[in-house]
User: Fold these one by one.
Assistant:
Number 1:
Amino acid sequence: MAVHTHPGSTDLLLPLPSAGESWDPHTIHTHYFGFSVPETAIGAFIYVRYMPAFPLTQGGVCVFQGTDNVEHADMAFLDYEMTMPWPTIEDGAITTANGLTIDFTEPGKTAALRYRACENRMSFDLVAEAVTPLLARGHVMPGEEDHHHAGTQPGGSEQFVHMTGQLVLDGTTYPVDCYAPRDRSWRQVRVEKRGAVPVPPVGWSPMYFGPDLIFNQISFEPLDTEPAWRGLYDVGDRPSHHFAWVQRGEETRGITKVRRNVLEYHPRLHMALRQEISAVDETGEEYFFRGEAVAAASIPAWPNCSFRDSVFRWEDPHGRTTYSTYQEIWFDAYHHAMLRRAARTAHA
């Protein structure tokens, strides 16, 4: 799998339909950033979803602490609006109606993120500095590519950043100093029609151990791990991952094989609580990681499905540890199966 890069100018790529032009209503652009304060089990999800066919946006800020955030309102702080006007864009700074600013001070390399809640309960002032190239990424969900065509000109990018600054939550100041991924999509057609993407739960597990080892993959659990989704979906003989890479110093390598094995599911959120990931890169080098969630939450970004964000503590075979987001998404057939599974466990 060849890994390519995008120019920094794509950070500000937010096209709108031309006069008289009609776009698929499910066309989206996105910006995602996140950060964590692992010692206090805090994670943050910062997201803007642009819907240019209308045009409108949705998004905002979710801050969660611990692993019991089952309802959206369980989170420590939530300011996420489903319908906002197109943001203000000025000199590289994107500002939403609910006060989130993403300022690309040097597109492709540096961004400043600022937010202050209207009632002053929460604020942050952060700088995100790139530590990897701006890597080109295709679609996020398997099957999504079926809804793209030459005229849509879809694209996406991923990048690890060093996130520094501070979070103020309910009067307490938390220094932020972590390595976190950011990503975005543009002109992707992400359909919400029921049954449009019949796929097992997909998990995204970026992790930064140091400049010599930065790993990223998105996959479903393969059948040989006896996943909870067995019997619900027919995945054929396709690989369990559809996008993965590893950064070894200055070298970016594609990943040829991923095996993600979930050891424990959250009893109410139903996402992976403990898991192992093994992988092989294009040179034949092998990798193995073991992880456990220290924070987890249900996130409102995609209301037609179940979407979870978390902070995972990862360990490699040499004892090095790191913390990063782990995100998982699935649709209702799987969710109902997990509810039945939880009920059986409760009555066993």
Note: The chain has one domain: 26-191+199-347.
Number 2:
Amino acid sequence: MEQLLQQIELYKQEIAAAEATNADMVEAFRIKYLGTKGLVKSVMGEMKNVPNDQKKAFGQILNDFKLFAENKFEILKQSIDDSQQSTANSIDLSLPGSPVSVGTRHPLSIVRNQIVSIFKRLGFAVSEGPEIEDDWHNFGAMNLPEDHPARDMQDTFYISQNPAWLLRTHTSSVQARVMEHQKPPIRVICPGRVYRNETISARAHCFFHQVEGLYIDENVSFADLKQTLYFFVQEMFGKEVKVRFRPSYFPFTEPSAEMDISCLICDSKGCNVCKHTGWVEILGSGMVHPKVLENFGIDSNKYTGFAFGMGVERICQLKYQVNDLRLYSQNDVRFLKQFTGAI
């Protein structure tokens, strides 16, 4: 038995000196000492050779040896777990940072903000109004009575009848509300979303965005209107862009004109966007109709004014050469990512 006790002491020294730097080494320790064919099992098997009068004392020695090996295994296992946890929580400050995906404004927001910025430099304030409007502010106040044929061009979505509530067809309704509560001089632009009952296609949509402008004061002339719009076009598209005015008709302005610019997509050589004319319409304009002024108690003999309105989608189409209006509302990330550098 003396020889077996010496062997156990040697095993304990060997176990005490054992080290492990990874999970495989810990597993190898378990198999060698605590496995079904390990040294602890082998030593425990010597119990059958111990005399009966020494079994109790020797059993205690064998049990202490087994606990010693198991404690060592737990220590090695815990050291590996702590090492892995420490590695997982450590930060290598020399590594490059994780890339951060940078978003961008929607192209319509970019262009809208540019338009607003240009007119703010000319002294225009910004006014906004509700998208659900009553018939008076949307049509009646703008010289569009119920039987007026021009209403057919602005077929819209009605919320209710008697009284009539509808999705506004233009931001002229905001101009109406401004004239209702403010006396001249008035100088505002009215950006916002509008709705019309249109078939959705590459060139039209049932909702779009407008920026309309209104300037009312004494001695305001058509020359003031033209110079204001000349300045806008040059600031938005560049000094080289050509401009022309064509007589037109709008119920709320008289005289009225549509404004064209030279096509930026084909350099005025002719393409599908400009319908091979070299010119693209960008806005409608005119002198405010006296009837509109009188609707809000503004003396049309003392005050005159001009108004204009443009579609943000059309301006954006020319500025960034977008060939399909539906792209603006499809939320296609591939399309939107192209404007990251345009903020």
Note: The beta strands are 125-126, 132-134, 158-160, 165-167, 186-195, 207-217, 243-250, 253-262, 279-288, 304-311.
Number 3:
Amino acid sequence: MSINNNNKVDELIGYFKSHCKIKEHQSHSAKVHSVGWSCDGKYLASGSFDKCICIFTLSPDRLKQETTFRGHGGSVDQLCWHATNPELLSTASGDKTVRIWDTRVQKCTATINTRGENINISWSPDGNTIAVGNKEDLVTFIDTRCIKIRAEEQFNFEVNEISWNKDSDTFYLTNGQGCVHILSYPELELLHVIKAHPGTCICIEFDPTGRYFAIGSADALVSLWDADELCCLRTFSRLDWPVRTISFSHDGQLLAAASEDLVIDIAEVETGEKVSDIPVEAATFTVAWHPKQYLLAYACDDKDIYDRKRDAGSLKVYGFPNE
């Protein structure tokens, strides 16, 4: 490892020693499944088992709840923002719909009926297509320009998370057999199958530069891949439980990974070295780095401190400066 990288890791470690304050917000009546930042970093959204989506704004030292979107008839399992329009948010729900919300008018602007209970959603970087996966391993492709279903693809294996490459012309899905399937879009022809892990591949995320993607697996490993060569560059192995959620920082330098471990691991991408970790009290469902600064939003299976049977319904943000 070069001296430069040593210095960089030390600098990052030092940064988080002075920026490790956590802000918590209790806004839902049930567990939070998904969090995500708008592309400009102005808004943070959380989707919950309570069927609601909460929108927060970020000030230098805190989060402020702005609005709550209601309308879904089932759990909001995953959400994602438009890659270039900071006002548009899409949500996937167990109520067999996908919804698009606009923060300017503070309401749902489109509802798309699908054939099953939706659990995964991914908006293509060009903004033209939303892909949504359901519990029966059917992936539906919605053209957002005309709000119509463009294609449906039924898979004969367990489909977990789905993602697009930076150019929006290839589509990636992780499966229960430890593989990543890569399809062309819009043709949906199978281009490659990567045998990535011995265990189920649970989550996938592209770094902001488009050079890499990372996969979180049931074998408790995170693997980092070269997006052009489709070769594995390194693995991150500090967690002991299946990796449920991963996120790259805005500059692609950091990778956060979380599981049922009582810690969220933050690694430097180029070396795999640990930069920081965040202690948590329960399994983590979702992590998301801010698109411009080192702030990590996350939500865990936290319980109410006064009633252990009740969900806390909280989300947290790590990385504020210590007083």
Note: The first strand starts at residue 21 and ends at 26.
Number 4:
Amino acid sequence: MKEEDYIKGRGAQQNVPNRFLKHIYETRDDFLEFCRIEGEEADKNKTQYIPIFPKTIVNKVTSPDVGMLYSMNPYQGCEHGCIYCYARNSHEFWGYGAGLDFERKILIKEDAPKLLEAKLKHKNWKAETIVMSGNTDCYQPAEKKFKITRGCLEVFLKYRHPVGMITKNALILRDLDILSELAKDHLVAINVSITSLSEETRRILEPRTATIKRRLDTIKTLSENNIPVNAMLAPIIPGINSHEIMNLAKAVADHGALSFAFTVVRLNGAIGQIFTDWIKKALPDRAEKVLHQIQECHSGTLNDSRFGIRSRGEGKIATQIHDLVRLARRTYFKDKPPFPKLNKELHERYKKGQMKLF
């Protein structure tokens, strides 16, 4: 592969057709040749921010494999570009592709704080932890401009409602003031995702994410401010980061994480094609070995849709991963305090924006 054929700064190296659309967009060779002759760019590789206006923002989660009851996503699509991201397939429901479209066409829900406030004020709503974001990162680069996540945190604080967060971006420290206030009443827990200790691996696997050092420093800063942190060592990809489990666990423990979770990679839907194309370009010498090891974890395929098994994997390689995880927990987390449960008792008193007297 020629170096110029690799799209730097992006995870996906292609746009795959949307399986729900009758017609597909195809870049023809004669158009590419025309652009070459004219000295024009066929693809400017720019990120687009597209406003959308949903009627609701809080989603009920029905999957038994996900440890949350409710989630909300201020953004659809994610500029971080993690090649393995399970959320890529969701972009097809919006009429876009799971490949480059997912990273370059970011849907913006500017009304999210207003919709969230309406949900929390509803007379039938009973406090349950709402997780930002169960799908795409609420602190992806768009947040620096739009500040929708910060607006939502202000709503959670106003109504003293529990919130969980999942991110791999150090931008979360911008909101340390609100997070610290939430933490005083045990209303917030953070999940920081860190997949590798190798910067070279991070750059190709998660091209527009915060560096490893910044993520570890984020865990440390949050922990020092009494904000509970769980590290997400996910996904574990055989042949890419599976050998790092012990070192990853030690690093996050040393920086203050109270616990860690993991999943074994699965390449569902369009992600199988996207990942396969990517690894043959990014890591051609390891491509077949990695793909075969992923297949070994999922009964010979790149994906397994069975609840209870799909995120854990099975077979010899998956067993080795689980053994390492158990060893890492015994070695580095045995003296850690239990991860705290969030407070669901305060919200009812603040439901109308102020405390009830009786």
Note: The longest strand covers residues 229-236.
